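Please describe the entry underneath.
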Amino acid sequence: MKAFMTNGTIDFLQKLDDNHPDKRIWIMRSNSGALAYYEDKKKSIFASGREYDIIIENGKIQEEGYVVMNNIPVTEEGQPVFEDRFKNRKHDVEMMPGFQAFRLLKPKKGNTYIVFTQWRSVQDFDNWKNSDAFKKSHKGQSSGKPPAYFADQPFLTTYHMVTEE
Protein backbone atom coordinates (compact mmCIF):
# COMPACT_ATOMS: atom_id res chain seq x y z
CA MET A 1 0.00 0.00 0.00
CA LYS A 2 1.11 3.55 -0.70
CA ALA A 3 0.35 6.94 0.81
CA PHE A 4 0.07 10.14 -1.20
CA MET A 5 0.16 13.76 -0.02
CA THR A 6 -0.07 17.17 -1.59
CA ASN A 7 -0.38 20.70 -0.24
CA GLY A 8 -2.66 23.54 -1.26
CA THR A 9 -5.53 25.68 -0.10
CA ILE A 10 -8.50 23.97 1.49
CA ASP A 11 -10.70 25.04 -1.45
CA PHE A 12 -8.26 23.57 -4.00
CA LEU A 13 -7.88 20.32 -2.05
CA GLN A 14 -11.65 20.05 -1.57
CA LYS A 15 -12.08 20.28 -5.36
CA LEU A 16 -9.55 17.47 -5.78
CA ASP A 17 -11.57 15.41 -3.34
CA ASP A 18 -14.82 16.25 -5.15
CA ASN A 19 -13.27 15.23 -8.49
CA HIS A 20 -12.26 11.80 -7.12
CA PRO A 21 -15.31 10.37 -5.33
CA ASP A 22 -13.77 6.88 -5.67
CA LYS A 23 -10.88 7.85 -3.33
CA ARG A 24 -10.98 8.47 0.43
CA ILE A 25 -9.00 11.70 0.69
CA TRP A 26 -8.46 13.23 4.11
CA ILE A 27 -7.95 16.99 4.20
CA MET A 28 -6.04 18.51 7.08
CA ARG A 29 -5.19 22.08 8.04
CA SER A 30 -2.28 23.62 9.91
CA ASN A 31 -1.11 27.12 10.68
CA SER A 32 0.88 27.10 7.44
CA GLY A 33 -1.71 25.68 5.02
CA ALA A 34 -3.54 22.51 4.17
CA LEU A 35 -2.66 18.97 3.14
CA ALA A 36 -4.54 16.21 1.32
CA TYR A 37 -3.65 12.59 2.18
CA TYR A 38 -4.90 9.30 0.86
CA GLU A 39 -3.83 5.65 0.64
CA ASP A 40 -4.08 3.39 -2.40
CA LYS A 41 -2.34 0.66 -4.39
CA LYS A 42 -2.54 2.58 -7.67
CA LYS A 43 -0.54 5.58 -8.89
CA SER A 44 -1.11 9.04 -7.51
CA ILE A 45 -3.95 11.29 -8.64
CA PHE A 46 -1.95 14.36 -7.56
CA ALA A 47 -0.17 16.35 -10.29
CA SER A 48 2.47 17.45 -7.79
CA GLY A 49 2.63 15.49 -4.60
CA ARG A 50 4.68 13.11 -2.52
CA GLU A 51 4.51 9.32 -2.59
CA TYR A 52 5.38 6.96 0.26
CA ASP A 53 5.41 3.24 0.89
CA ILE A 54 3.47 2.35 4.03
CA ILE A 55 5.93 0.23 6.02
CA ILE A 56 3.80 -0.12 9.17
CA GLU A 57 0.05 0.52 9.49
CA ASN A 58 -1.94 0.39 12.74
CA GLY A 59 -5.42 1.75 13.37
CA LYS A 60 -7.82 3.48 11.01
CA ILE A 61 -7.55 7.14 10.07
CA GLN A 62 -10.60 8.94 11.41
CA GLU A 63 -12.70 11.82 10.04
CA GLU A 64 -11.90 13.93 13.09
CA GLY A 65 -8.70 14.22 15.03
CA TYR A 66 -5.25 15.70 15.43
CA VAL A 67 -2.44 14.47 13.18
CA VAL A 68 1.23 14.66 14.13
CA MET A 69 3.84 13.93 11.47
CA ASN A 70 7.38 13.45 12.70
CA ASN A 71 9.53 14.12 9.61
CA ILE A 72 12.81 12.23 10.00
CA PRO A 73 15.60 12.50 7.39
CA VAL A 74 17.46 9.16 7.37
CA THR A 75 20.74 8.33 5.64
CA GLU A 76 20.53 5.71 2.89
CA GLU A 77 22.71 3.25 4.79
CA GLY A 78 20.71 3.87 7.98
CA GLN A 79 17.30 3.08 6.47
CA PRO A 80 17.30 -0.66 7.34
CA VAL A 81 18.29 0.11 10.96
CA PHE A 82 15.65 2.83 11.21
CA GLU A 83 12.89 0.60 9.81
CA ASP A 84 13.94 -2.31 12.04
CA ARG A 85 13.74 -0.09 15.10
CA PHE A 86 10.07 0.57 14.32
CA LYS A 87 9.23 -3.00 13.32
CA ASN A 88 10.67 -4.30 16.61
CA ARG A 89 9.27 -1.60 18.89
CA LYS A 90 6.70 -2.11 21.57
CA HIS A 91 3.29 -0.85 20.55
CA ASP A 92 2.73 1.34 23.61
CA VAL A 93 1.47 4.27 21.52
CA GLU A 94 -1.48 2.20 20.27
CA MET A 95 -2.57 1.58 23.87
CA MET A 96 -2.77 5.26 24.79
CA PRO A 97 -6.21 6.81 25.31
CA GLY A 98 -7.12 8.89 22.26
CA PHE A 99 -4.84 7.02 19.85
CA GLN A 100 -6.45 6.54 16.42
CA ALA A 101 -3.86 5.63 13.77
CA PHE A 102 -0.16 5.06 13.12
CA ARG A 103 1.76 4.90 9.84
CA LEU A 104 5.48 4.63 9.14
CA LEU A 105 5.90 6.14 5.69
CA LYS A 106 9.02 5.61 3.55
CA PRO A 107 9.55 8.25 0.84
CA LYS A 108 9.72 7.18 -2.81
CA LYS A 109 11.97 10.22 -3.42
CA GLY A 110 14.27 11.85 -0.92
CA ASN A 111 15.24 10.59 2.51
CA THR A 112 12.58 11.97 4.88
CA TYR A 113 10.46 9.28 6.50
CA ILE A 114 7.22 10.29 8.19
CA VAL A 115 6.01 8.85 11.46
CA PHE A 116 2.28 9.63 11.17
CA THR A 117 0.09 9.44 14.27
CA GLN A 118 -3.51 10.51 14.62
CA TRP A 119 -5.07 11.37 17.97
CA ARG A 120 -8.58 12.22 19.06
CA SER A 121 -7.29 15.59 20.39
CA VAL A 122 -4.20 17.71 21.03
CA GLN A 123 -4.57 16.83 24.72
CA ASP A 124 -4.40 13.09 23.93
CA PHE A 125 -1.13 13.67 22.02
CA ASP A 126 0.25 15.78 24.87
CA ASN A 127 -0.68 13.02 27.33
CA TRP A 128 1.33 10.56 25.16
CA LYS A 129 4.31 12.94 25.02
CA ASN A 130 4.30 13.25 28.81
CA SER A 131 3.78 9.55 29.52
CA ASP A 132 6.29 7.05 30.89
CA ALA A 133 5.64 4.91 27.80
CA PHE A 134 6.79 7.79 25.56
CA LYS A 135 9.93 8.29 27.65
CA LYS A 136 10.68 4.56 27.43
CA SER A 137 10.14 4.40 23.68
CA HIS A 138 12.36 7.45 23.10
CA LYS A 139 15.03 6.47 25.64
CA GLY A 140 18.48 7.63 24.61
CA GLN A 141 17.16 10.34 22.28
CA SER A 142 16.97 13.03 24.95
CA SER A 143 20.76 13.20 25.19
CA GLY A 144 20.69 15.82 22.43
CA LYS A 145 22.76 13.65 20.11
CA PRO A 146 20.68 12.24 17.25
CA PRO A 147 21.20 8.64 16.10
CA ALA A 148 23.98 8.22 13.52
CA TYR A 149 21.44 7.29 10.85
CA PHE A 150 19.70 10.70 11.02
CA ALA A 151 20.72 12.72 7.96
CA ASP A 152 19.40 15.95 9.48
CA GLN A 153 17.34 17.24 12.41
CA PRO A 154 13.79 15.77 12.56
CA PHE A 155 10.86 18.17 12.70
CA LEU A 156 7.15 17.95 13.52
CA THR A 157 4.21 19.09 11.42
CA THR A 158 0.77 19.03 12.99
CA TYR A 159 -2.70 19.17 11.47
CA HIS A 160 -6.35 19.20 12.43
CA MET A 161 -8.67 17.14 10.26
CA VAL A 162 -11.08 19.14 8.11
CA THR A 163 -14.54 17.66 8.22
CA GLU A 164 -17.01 18.18 5.42
CA GLU A 165 -19.82 20.54 6.27
